[in-house]
């Protein structure tokens, strides 16, 4: 007799946006979707930090350009003071001046406001499972920026790549596919293994290298010369 499945609890989310119409629209949209429970809404970064301290949400959906305390500073404070709460940026801006400061401040996800409700939920689930919740366009921009920043190390790639930091050959293959932007499911299909096996390889390579998320893994792969720049 099989044991009954334990119902997955919805992710508890705080929405932070200084535009009332946008904030209320996001709250309403997420309220229609399974897997997410909105437990609070903030009109600026100061209020967002305060609500995190009071409510201990799983995730904050964070706008960047807000009064009193902007999204980057609020993200930094939340990640320092309340490390159990993850931050997914949800903003109009996808330029480098917005993207990279937010990631450096500790955001684990980055979406633009044209994202649909299901994409937002996927990003929330991704960051809670230890992955980066980056939209495809943001991930491409990150790869382009890294390829520009690491032209020498990326220009020469041994074939096959030599595993660094005691990684196995298979772990190195998984790392390279992460850097190419593949999801866990796509990696499993490419390597003809299960999703669980891919997660095990990712956990192992993160433990060996000290990496915390996929964005760091992309930077690491370029720094080690494991991947070539696009084109």
Automatic annotation (TrEMBL):
Pfam families: GerE, Response_reg. SMART domains: HTH_LUXR, REC. Residues 12-128 form the Response regulatory domain. Keywords: DNA-binding, Phosphoprotein, Transcription, Transcription regulation. It comes from the Bacteria. InterPro entries: CheY-like_superfamily, NreC/VraR/RcsB-like_REC, Sig_transdc_resp-reg_receiver, Tscrpt_reg_LuxR_C, WalR-like. Residues 160-225 form the HTH luxR-type domain. The modification 4-aspartylphosphate is found at residue 63. One of its GO terms (biological process) is phosphorelay signal transduction system. One of its GO terms (molecular function) is DNA binding. The keyword Nucleotidyltransferase does not apply. This is DNA-binding response regulator. It comes from Streptomyces griseofuscus. The lineage of its organism: Bacteria, Bacillati, Actinomycetota, Actinomycetes, Kitasatosporales.
């Amino acid at each position: 007799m099989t044991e009954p499945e334990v119902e997955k609890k919805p992710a508890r989310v705080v929405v932070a946006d200084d535009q009332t119409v946008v904030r209320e629209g996001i709250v309403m949209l997420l309220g229609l979707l399974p897997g997410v429970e909105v437990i609070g809404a903030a009109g600026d970064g100061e209020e967002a930090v305060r609500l995190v301290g009071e409510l201990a949400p799983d995730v904050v959906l964070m706008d960047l350009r807000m009064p009193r305390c902007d999204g980057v500073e609020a993200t930094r404070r939340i990640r320092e003071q309340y490390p159990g709460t993850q931050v997914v940026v949800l903003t109009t801006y996808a330029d480098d001046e917005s993207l990279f400061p937010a990631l450096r401040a500790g955001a684990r996800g980055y979406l633009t406001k044209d994202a649909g409700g299901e994409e937002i939920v996927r990003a929330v689930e991704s960051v809670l499972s230890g992955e980066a919740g980056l939209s495809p366009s943001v991930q491409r921009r990150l790869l382009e920026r890294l390829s520009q920043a690491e032209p020498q190390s990326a220009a020469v790639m041994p074939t096959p790549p030599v595993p660094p930091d005691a990684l196995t050959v298979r772990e190195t293959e998984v790392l390279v596919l992460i850097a190419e932007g593949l999801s866990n499911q796509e990696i499993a299909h490419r390597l003809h293994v299960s999703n669980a096996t891919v997660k095990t390889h990712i956990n192992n390579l993160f433990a060996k290298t000290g990496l915390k998320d996929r964005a760091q893994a992309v930077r690491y792969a370029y720094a080690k010369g494991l991947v070539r720049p696009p084109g």
